[in-house]
Specification:
Number of helices: 2
CATH class: Alpha Beta
Helix content: 10-25%
Radius of gyration: 13 Å
Largest sheet: 5 strands, antiparallel
CATH topology: HIT family, subunit A
Order of helices and strands: HEEEHEE
Length: about 110
Amino acid sequence: MNDCIFCQVVSGRLPSKPIYQDDEVIVIPDLHSQAPVHLLVIPKTHISQFTEASDEILTKMNTIIKQIIQDQQISSYRLVVNGTGAAVIDHLHVHILGKIDKFRSL
């Protein structure tokens, strides 16, 4: 999708500073950080919502999330996936919010 901001990041049309990427997934810092660590784990293929994602890509994203949490020694964290209507960007992504002293209860 040409107008999707994450598709533009993946294609290189918008600059980013990936902390990880492979053929299927890219991880970038959120430009509008809500925590000391705020990363976005994004599939490179445009997937509009969580329920449209294959088990394979979700497993891959999960593995990458675990590795990043370990590598960056993020001791306190929250993972967030916004569903249809709640997401600002219509492209599946997982927020890693970390290194917050105290999270508000959900």
